[in-house]
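Illustration: Mth938-like domain-containing protein.
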Amino acid sequence: MTKDVQSPKVASIKWGKISLENGTTYKDAKLFPGGSRTWDWNETGTHHTPGIQPADVKELLDHDAEVVILSQGFNERLQVCDETQEFLSEQEVTYHILQTEKAIQKYNELCDGYGVGALIHSTC
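Result:
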């Protein structure tokens, strides 16, 4: 299913900085159809271990993401909780867990055809 509202594309990433095509920058970002914001791990108690929480991805689904990209950092140190994967499966949402640069590549590819959401971690 193609969405009318497009997700913001990532222009570049380097350690500690995500730049979107619209000029907005973040350290860690939540990207979703129609917008973006800072991904503040403190809101949900996220840490590298056990990793990305179901509450982290729920907001993406609330913004009509049909595909979710979860980045694990440049060195893949950020994990994804089993509960998060179970939650996405229960919601019948396609998701990809990838190293940050690969996650951004996949995210940008999907932006043109899908309502895509992403959690992008810009460091470790």
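Reading the tokens back as a structure: The chain has one domain: 10-121.
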